[in-house]
Amino acid sequence: MGYKAEDLEVLAYDFSAVGGPVGTIPEPSQDQVEQLQAALRAMQADLIDDKGVVDMQKVRAKVAEAGGEGELARRTREQTTAALAEVCSQSPSHDELWNLPHRHFAGFSAYLVSALLNPR
Known about the structure:
globular; mainly alpha; two-stranded antiparallel ribbon; single chain; 56% helix; 5 helices
């Protein structure tokens, strides 16, 4: 019967299994979604060659510039956390996202980006 607004999935999270909060995410504005997309692109831009393929020499240079893989991972997590908290209007907050165990953070990130860019 076509598109019905009430059929669109509510953006929600439940981190109670790892001692975190439960809540819903306010519907992001178009500007917030565009800012998230820009932030994600910017994090990858200097690792991609002109054909859109990851350039391993650029990756190695970025790792060396950051002071090692661990530091690069920490910086990437910080940038991703900030971008996600902004698109979520701080629900969950930056600190709540930062304190999630890695796999839960990665799972939430994948869920949220998919829900925003390919809503069901």
